[in-house]
Specification:
The structure is a homodimer.
Chain A: H1 4-7, H2 13-20, H3 24-31, H4 40-53, H5 59-66, E1 71-76, H6 82-97, E2 101-106, H7 108-112, H8 120-124, E3 128-132, E4 150-153, E5 163-167, H9 169-182, E6 188-191, H10 201-216, E7 225-226, H11 232-244, E8 251-254, H12 257-269, E9 279-283, H13 287-290, E10 297-301, H14 303-319, E11 327-330, E12 332-335
Parallel strand pairs in A: 1-2, 1-3, 3-4, 4-5, 5-11, 6-7, 6-8, 8-9, 9-10
Antiparallel strand pairs in A: 10-12
Chain B binds a DNA duplex through residues 12-14, 22-26, 28-29, 31-32, 36-39, 42, 57-58, 60-67.
GO molecular function, one term (chains A, B): transcription cis-regulatory region binding
Domain HTH lacI-type (chains A, B): 11-66
Keywords (chains A, B): DNA-binding, Transcription, Transcription regulation
Chain lengths: 342, 342
DNA sequence: TTGTATGCGTTATCAA
DNA sequence: TTGATAACGCATACAA
């Protein structure tokens, strides 16, 4: 049975007003720093009572009244991901310049319920949402006509009415593969590749990879396209499966740095040398990848540009619902470090 | 000048009700799945109008009415951190079991303003807050009497009225150092150590480290305690500074895996072998660390237990304001992998 | 099964 | 400079 203390509601502006002997509006004005509308004496009196009561503004009430929350969300598949972590911090810093906080939420659980990624609550609890749509069913977006400003991060084709920021997957994979070929590789395994077409991130990178092979007249080999999950362990397992099966390869193109780090570990565990026996290129240009041994070469998207345009598109939509949606593709470049030969 | 479209407010329940020719309450009941209170015909009618209008529940309004939000926050110093990423995903999964979403926010910007870590908005926009208080001024908490349920994650001493979950820093560092000594190390550098006492995470781990040295009769060496930042790059710089200065060492104890990964890169860049020339132990037992080459030995906190108790303490407080605060210390164990000798 | 009235805590507006 | 009033959108309690 709840005690009396359990029922004690947090103090409200009315409580402060009553105790200070002023009106609620005066408290509101003090709280919001509208100094021009409150005398010094009143201000002091109110502040005194506020700290005495431990009063805090009720944000939902304020949000209801103002029609805005002051927070935008970034929805990512998982919170413990190297790349999304960096994306999140970059976005947080930039949104803060606009007076908005960034809240990061995981869609992992929600994805199992398909449609729920963009359910009511996730959308309308925020002034805007950046959705990193790595997986899941693209058709989710078809019927959606959100009133909440929304920017899609990722490669899946989405209806024109949505703003989207993606990167040049095909081009990046094309150049990375060409670089590997130029550096002597002939049997390049694609870790995290897509075997079944489709239109996600993996599909785009796979397409670019195959295009490079074809262009160079190097035969494709089905066994060298290895689907994988997203964690470093998945990269390890993928590379290990090749080694266990006796599939020969002299290079690994991995669709993320996370996979590459795992794949490197599997290769090293077999006593193979990087880059002498096996060259490796990852994707995302993460800080951890650059600190690997050897330092991981990586396809580097223009992350700063991506963050900037994401914020611009979302802010535009927040400030004006008629802001036209855009689809922006940011460029990528291959950054060679220690896992590829000079 | 804003166009007419810019002023179009999102549809409300009233709009739906009017168009469907029913009362607002019927719409509310439909939206909330109270099927027992609405006939099938009504339900269909309302759903039709809802999708026609693209209606979404206004969460701030619902939150104001219900007195709860359905979201708890995890406030971390930075979003692009290996360990906090894993902590976040674990907590998100566990809170979801209780019907609560987790929103991760960065305090990085706020920390520059000292007190603002726990400002009004950050607290009252959520049903509860888990604060990872790695840095910043402990005195921030002194005057705070939050009505929002709060659990502190971290090592700083906090007032008894707060629930806190920390880990056995002293014990973990003690055992890690003893292990290194047992494995033949005599000159152990502490990367990320605290040179000036204090009470943070680094201070606790430094104390345990020194205690082990003293216990084994191994002389302390001031030049082997190397303060560092938190990113892998900072670990690289710290180890590199030792090497550049010609300070000899045969082992590195790093206060985080992130620092260890960077330090390993610096060591390897000098042609030193791990673990033959230099043994390394990190802290946090991250997935990426386990995938390093060689696999990073690490002090592993009982992360599952930490998440579980964190959720228990916060949920307890959310469900009953009189729930007594606790200070729980989770155990740590040294997990030996490839960066230490067998 | 459906509808009406009321209030959650805040702030804009207008009056004093 | 201060205060009274109304309204933001929703859901509980109760009436029909």
């Amino acid at each position: 049975m709840p005690s009396a203390r359990d029922e004690a509601a947090p103090p409200t502006m009315s409580d402060v007003a009553r105790l200070a002997g002023v009106s609620v509006m005066t408290v509101s004005n003090v709280v919001n720093g509208k100094d021009a509308r409150v005398s010094q004496a009143m201000r002091d009196r109110v502040h005194e009572v506020i700290s005495e009561l431990g009063y805090r503004v009720n944000m939902p009430a304020r949000a209801l009244r103002l029609g805005r929350i002051g927070v935008v969300a970034l929805a990512v598949p998982m919170l413990d991901d190297l790349y999304y972590g960096e994306v999140a911090q970059r976005l947080a810093d930039r949104f803060e310049d606009h007076g908005l906080r960034l809240a990061v939420e995981s869609t992992r659980g929600a994805l199992t319920r398909e449609l729920a990624v963009l359910d009511d609550s996730r959308l309308t609890t925020y002034d805007g949402v950046v959705l990193a749509a790595a997986a899941g069913d693209a058709s989710v977006l078809e019927g959606l006509q959100p009133s909440t400003p929304l920017v899609i991060l990722g490669e899946r084709s989405v209806p024109d009415r949505f703003s989207q920021v993606s990167m040049d997957n095909r081009g990046g994979a094309l150049r990375a593969t060409m670089d590997l070929l130029r550096l002597g590789a002939r049997r390049i395994a694609l870790i995290g590749g897509a075997t079944d077409g489709g239109e996600g991130m993996a599909a785009g990178r796979t397409a670019g990879h195959l295009e490079a092979l074809d262009g160079a007249g190097v035969a494709r080999a089905a066994e060298l396209i290895v689907p994988a999950g997203v964690r470093p362990q998945d990269g390890y397992a993928a590379a290990a499966s090749l080694l266990d099966a006796g599939v020969a390869f002299d290079a690994l193109l991995c669709v993320t740095d996370a996979l590459a780090l795992g794949a490197m570990a599997a290769v090293a565990a077999r006593g193979l040398r990087i880059p002498e026996d096996v060259q490796v290129i990852g994707w995302d240009d993460t800080a951890v990848g650059a600190m690997a041994t050897p330092a991981l070469s990586s396809v580097a998207p223009d992350n700063a540009a991506a963050a900037e345009v994401t914020v611009r598109l979302l802010m535009g939509r927040i400030e004006s619902p008629s802001f036209p949606p855009e689809h922006v593709v940011v460029s990528t470049e291959v950054r060679h470090r220690g896992t590829t030969r000079r």
